[in-house]
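hey so i finaly got around to running the thing on Putative non-LTR reverse transcriptase from Arabidopsis thaliana. pasting the sequence first so u can double check i didnt mess up the copy paste, my clipboard has been acting weird all day
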Amino acid sequence: MASGSKDLEKFDGFGDYISWKVKFLDHLKDLDLLEGLKEEVCLEKGSGNSGSDEGRVKDLEECKILEEKKRKARAFIIVSVGDHVLRKIMKERTTAGMMELLDKLYLSKSQPSHSMSNRIQSQRLYFKRKLFEFKMSINGSMKENIEEFSSIQYL
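ok and heres what it spat out for the 3d tokens, dont ask me to read them lol
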């Protein structure tokens, strides 16, 4: 998936969630969809006006824009995660709820021990594969190769 010159890999549940989230939020910002992650409800936003018709129309237009941003942000979340992760978050109705659930699932340290051991085993296999498949780039500098190798973290 590409947005301009940047690429965002799908989050599959095994990589570095924090780095993925930073890149994901940067993409949303570039697409002007960051506001779509807010929990705001449009009806509450327009109720505080003095009653002028012009003010109500403006709030209605802003509400439509916000709802469109929420719809697009939700679609962007859906295409930015792998199928395994999507199955866990797709029941959430709001974009804020989806992001909250992702944070809860992948930032939380308290997981049941049996699923934790399965997860750790899967992560170990993932990192072993990454280490095994690592190849130095002939075109890259030694520093770039070392940085790439160092970015492969093991539990």
